[in-house]
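Bumping with the actual sequence this time:
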Amino acid sequence: MRTLSERAREIRCAVFDVDGVMTDCKLYLAADGTELKAVHVRDGLGLKLLMQAGIEVAVISGRPSAAMQARFEYLGIRRVWLNVEHKLPAWEELKAQLGLHDEQMMMMGDDTPDLPLLQRAGLAMTVADAHPKVLAVAHWASRLTGGNGAVRDAADLILAAQSADLRP
């Protein structure tokens, strides 16, 4: 059985869910139906640090969000699937685009629609307040909740494991 550090060293693509991972799982609705989401600025930096280290960052989410699409464009995340009811086809498309295997993919999700990806990922990560079924399959759970720095926590773990490969 591979250790957490061994799994993290193999990661070439980090995939994230949005609601409950990058956000606090709450939907803030205005009277006109506009949806607002709160994100943690450190999570954004964590995503940028992954990309700077040569790790592809992708998003696969079951909900549409113009606000999050704009955030991803600002961060430079090019591989984004929003409003995806069944996430596995997007996962397969992403792997094919990048020429990667499941072992080279990380998934961070928080609820049952993420289970097919978490079960395939070489590194399955989640947030402290994830659904119990997700917590049961995850290789690692952040001590932080969704929208409160858990993405940065995950990025730091991967980056630390991969920097160990660079030491003499």
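The tokens above came from a reply further down the thread. The CA atoms of residues 90 and 123 lie 17 Å apart.
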